[in-house]
């Protein structure tokens, strides 16, 4: 089962960091003292020596003796168990009550009762914890039981709030909705679907909470509200020791040190756990470096438009590789991609998620983070080497001659600043315009991307724009300079079909009007087909086919391209036949096979396909294809999970 | 099998009317496609049908009787995103078993196990272990598990809300084939919601077009998509990518 092993790995990860290891050792030490302390040292802790009352530290008594001549170090060690048990009891109460209060609103539905509980928790959270503890201590009476209840209840609101927030988040998940639709009761949903998913954050907070409740206990006992004689915990010892601070400071310092070490152990451990578990959840398990190397691409495999004069080349990419450092080696999601884009040309890049199409775009636009390594034989924009150290000149070139359009226009704008300002910034930053000039240009550009009332619209915030308007504004931002290349990464995926059409039309129009080069990345072959002259089909980090858009439907050579085209129903698809499908799933960068990456899903695959990676070679039609059987058996594709053969 | 009927159903959130006096019928054994853009109210209508939101006015009936408010519902829903509609901590077998009604076949552990096997077989996941967690499965496989879970409730009608739009194109086809196959084999009734006209055309025999909370056109798929009467339907049809290739 994957969940337990990955969890075990996460915990192992926690323990192997320096912080985690230190915390674990400290915690083990504290717990060992709690377990063994009373067994080993009770005798010396209780041995009254009237001849040595309030003795100073000596070889025999390292921290001196108390007012009955008992050894203080031994008493501190013995007190460990009670202190820690009390802290655990209190945190147990806090979590129990907190869970109950926190999940009550979910159980009660969205009615008045639920709101009342939430409001109560909110008020309680606002109360200082220690004050609450003092109040409860008075209510429950002075003593250990009272103190446990007091600290436990005082900690409960924090946990209630945490639970409430987490539960509210989880309750919005679709699997909770699915369970409700299935007729599962609220209590059952809570126990089966919600609570198990709050385990990690609760564990983390409980560990840290144990540390704080230990401190709170020491505080209460020190004030004389906690443990009473003849029992003693660290707080009580501190209380006794402070009385003789000027005679023997060690009597107060020793229990103080114990509280410090134990508190530190709990808090550090909680922190380490939080870091360890949190990080693995974010990045997921990393994997080994693929054992194979991509077949080298011979020099002559240029793209088919290379016959055009080189002055027209806007972007030139040769043997581009992108890799990330994984936990157990390197991952290479882009494995040698070569293409060029000319002035006035629209190039589409299609592929499934994980094919490396977006990474290619980000590598070209130098937008990848520091964790990525970008290598290429050549990477040039308008003849300028993009791989060289980023000079101010290069930054200006990227800023003005390249425009990038992202999938989600909401997250690509700063929500707190007006649209006009954000556009104008490009002008003032990269083109040395004054503010007024830049703002005028922003209005002009919004006009150009057909945003109505641009002069008024520049004063609006991103949320006041609709999705399609925002995407236009994003394109307008790219047009603030005089770009030679627009890279659009799934620009219409988040948009409705009618708006999608408008944005695609806009991109086409801009391309035609200004003779720009356009690179359009999409998972949807039909979208690319509407705008582009040429299509690159990517699979597992490589280009598997490069062909003219007009040839997509009829003359594709690679079985993957043909399957992609056939898999998408359009308005002319024969509804009496099952749709063509591609069996299996795409390979990830971690398990790229030795031969052709598509071999496992390909109806044409043979022994050679599984052992040797096909190079990307020129086709008769002027495109490029990486396949040992290009164009083979064009009428047959593998269909369905049951591997039925279906005529296209 | 019985007929799902919406009569004058409205759903309001505060002053915003998400669904505005919708009347629609899903006849037994047919797939009715519901198309429209985001914000047109199609998902709200779906959520009202399965009881996740309360209609402000109007009635939803199944076979003439109002839908039960508590307990097992004769309707099941398949959600858009198979990555969030399955509990990551629960095995797919338990997720499916959870939706089963309690009766003699599902009273025993053995009975439930066999029923889970049968359902997984039905959605072409026969070789997948019921003990697998969703994390082990691809998006398409998860969506098939979600379909199996919906079938486990032995619903009279299934509501499918954009079930292919989160999937890669190579997987989308397999899920659509499965939907058609299940419909033909089991005679399922389905309200199939999608913004993709080509997808709806492929699975649905009737189509309703929704805009701003209202149904603007309804009829057989061939008529609505072949001879659209409402300008909005025509606009939607014109926007389908691939209609005007270069």
From TrEMBL, chain A:
UniProt entry tagged with the keyword ATP-binding: yes
Compartments in which it is found: Cell membrane; Membrane
One Pfam family this sequence matches: BPD_transp_1
UniProt superkingdom: Bacteria
Main location per the UniProt record: membrane
Residue ranges occupied by any ABC transmembrane type-1 domain in the UniProt entry: 80-270
Transmembrane stretches, start-end: 20-41, 84-107, 127-154, 202-225, 245-269
Keywords: ATP-binding, Cell membrane, Membrane, Nucleotide-binding, Transmembrane, Transmembrane helix, Transport
PROSITE patterns: ABC_TM1, ABC_TRANSPORTER_1, ABC_TRANSPORTER_2
UniProt membrane topology term: Multi-pass membrane protein; Peripheral membrane protein
Domain (ABC transporter) ranges: 317-565
Region Disordered, annotated ranges: 287-310
CDD domains to which the protein is assigned, alphabetical: ABC_NikE_OppD_transporters (cd03257), TM_PBP2 (cd06261)
Entry protein name: Dipeptide/oligopeptide/nickel ABC transporter permease/ATP-binding protein
Origin organism lineage: Bacteria, Bacillati, Actinomycetota, Actinomycetes, Propionibacteriales
UniProtKB/TrEMBL annotation, chain B:
InterPro entries per record: AAA+_ATPase, ABC_transp_ATP-bind, ABC_transporter-like_ATP-bd, ABC_transporter-like_CS, P-loop_NTPase
Source superkingdom: Bacteria
Record's keyword terms, sorted: ATP-binding, Nucleotide-binding, Transport
Organism of this sequence: Nocardioides hwasunensis
GO molecular function: ATP binding
CDD domains registered for this protein in UniProt: ABC_NikE_OppD_transporters
SMART domains named in the record: AAA
Name of the featured protein: ABC transporter ATP-binding protein
Sequence intervals crossing the membrane: none
Domain (ABC transporter) ranges: 4-237
SUPFAM superfamilies named among the record's database cross-references: P-loop containing nucleoside triphosphate hydrolases
A Pfam match: ABC_tran
Similarity remark: Belongs to the ABC transporter superfamily.
Ranges in a coiled coil: none
């Amino acid at each position: 089962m994957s969940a337990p092993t990955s969890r075990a790995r996460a915990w192992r990860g926690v323990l192997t960091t320096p912080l985690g290891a230190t915390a674990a050792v400290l915690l083990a030490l504290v717990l060992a003292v709690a377990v063994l302390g009373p067994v080993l040292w009770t005798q010396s802790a209780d041995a009254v020596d009237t001849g040595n009352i309030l003795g100073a530290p000596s070889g025999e008594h390292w921290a001196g003796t108390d007012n009955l001549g008992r050894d203080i170090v031994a008493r501190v060690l013995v007190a460990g168990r009670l202190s820690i048990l009390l802290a655990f009891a209190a945190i147990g109460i806090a979590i129990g009550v907190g869970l109950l209060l926190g999940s009550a609103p979910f159980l009660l539905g969205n009615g008045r009762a639920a709101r009342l509980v939430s409001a109560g928790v909110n008020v309680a959270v606002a109360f200082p914890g220690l004050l609450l503890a003092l109040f409860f201590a008075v209510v429950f009476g002075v003593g250990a039981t009272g103190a446990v209840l007091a600290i436990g209840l005082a900690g409960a609101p924090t946990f209630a709030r945490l639970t409430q927030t987490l539960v509210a988040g989880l309750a919005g998940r679709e699997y909770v909705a699915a369970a409700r639709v299935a007729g599962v009761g609220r209590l059952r949903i809570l126990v089966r679907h919600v609570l198990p998913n709050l385990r990690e954050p609760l564990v983390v907070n409980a560990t840290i909470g144990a540390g704080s409740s230990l401190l709170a206990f020491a505080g209460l006992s020190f004030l004389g509200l906690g443990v009473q004689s003849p029992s003693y915990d660290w707080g009580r010892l501190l209380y006794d020791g402070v009385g003789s601070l000027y005679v023997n400071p060690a009597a107060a310092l020793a229990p103080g040190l114990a509280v410090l070490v134990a508190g530190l152990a709990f808090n550090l451990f909680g922190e380490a756990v939080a870091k360890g578990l949190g990080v693995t959840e974010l990045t997921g398990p990393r994997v080994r470096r693929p054992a194979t190397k991509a077949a080298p691409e011979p020099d002559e495999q240029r793209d088919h438009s290379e016959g055009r004069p080189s002055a027209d080349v806007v972007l030139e990419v040769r043997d581009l590789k992108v890799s990330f450092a994984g936990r157990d080696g390197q991952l290479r999601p882009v494995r040698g991609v070569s293409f060029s884009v000319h002035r006035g040309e629209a190039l589409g890049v299609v592929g499934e998620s994980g094919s490396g199409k977006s990474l290619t775009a980000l590598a070209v636009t130098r937008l990848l983070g520091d964790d990525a390594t970008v290598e290429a034989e050549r990477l040039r924009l308008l003849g300028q080497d993009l791989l060289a150290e980023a000079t101010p000149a290069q930054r200006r070139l990227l800023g003005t001659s390249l425009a990038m359009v992202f999938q989600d226009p909401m997250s690509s704008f700063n929500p707190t600043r007006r649209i006009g300002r954000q556009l104008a910034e490009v002008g003032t930053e990269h083109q040395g315009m004054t503010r007024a000039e830049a703002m005028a240009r922003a209005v002009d550009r919004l006009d150009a991307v057909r945003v109505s009332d641009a002069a008024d619209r520049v004063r609006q915030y991103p949320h006041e724009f609709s999705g399609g308007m925002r995407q236009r504004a994003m394109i307008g931002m790219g047009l603030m300079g005089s770009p030679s290349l627009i890279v659009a990464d799934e620009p219409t995926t988040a948009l409705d079909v009618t708006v999608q059409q408008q944005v695609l039309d806009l991109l086409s129009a801009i391309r035609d009007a200004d003779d720009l080069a356009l690179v359009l990345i999409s998972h949807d072959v039909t979208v690319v087909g509407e705008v582009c002259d040429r299509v690159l089909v990517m699979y597992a980090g490589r280009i598997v086919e490069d062909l003219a858009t007009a040839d997509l439907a009829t003359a594709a050579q690679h079985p993957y391209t043909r399957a992609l085209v056939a898999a998408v129903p359009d308005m002319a698809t024969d509804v009496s036949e099952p749709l063509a499908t591609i069996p299996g799933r795409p390979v990830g960068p971690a398990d790229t096979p030795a031969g052709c990456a598509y071999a496992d899903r390909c109806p044409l695959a043979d022994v050679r396909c599984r052992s040797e990676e096909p190079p990307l070679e020129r086709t008769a039609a002027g495109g490029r294809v990486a396949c040992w059987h290009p164009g083979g058996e064009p009428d047959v594709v593998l269909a369905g999970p049951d591997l039925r053969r279906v005529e296209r | 099998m019985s007929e799902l009927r919406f009569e004058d159903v409205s759903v309001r959130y505060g002053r915003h009317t998400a669904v505005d006096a919708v009347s629609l019928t899903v006849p037994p054994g047919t797939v009715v496609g519901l198309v429209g853009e985001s914000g047109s109210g199609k998902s709200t209508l779906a959520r009202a049908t399965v009881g996740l939101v309360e209609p402000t006015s109007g009635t939803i009936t199944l076979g003439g009787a109002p839908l039960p408010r508590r307990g097992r519902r004769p309707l099941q829903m398949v959600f858009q995103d198979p990555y969030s509609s399955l509990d990551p901590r629960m095995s797919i077998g338990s997720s499916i078993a959870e939706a089963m009604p309690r009766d003699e076949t599902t009273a025993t552990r053995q009975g439930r196990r066999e029923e889970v096997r049968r359902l997984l077989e039905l959605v072409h996941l026969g070789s997948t272990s019921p003990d697998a967690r969703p994390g082990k499965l691809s998006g398409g496989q998860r969506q098939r598990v979600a379909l199996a879970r919906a079938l486990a409730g032995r619903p009279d009608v299934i509501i499918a809300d954009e079930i292919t739009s989160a999937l890669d194109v190579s997987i989308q086809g397999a899920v659509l084939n499965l939907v058609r196959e299940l419909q033909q084999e089991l005679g399922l009734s389905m309200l199939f919601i999608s913004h993709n006209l080509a997808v709806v055309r492929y699975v649905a025999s009737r189509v309703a077009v929704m805009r701003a909370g209202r149904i603007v056109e309804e009829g057989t798929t061939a008529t609505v998509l072949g001879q659209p009467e409402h300008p909005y339907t025509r606009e939607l049809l014109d926007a389908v990518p691939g209609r005007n290739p270069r």
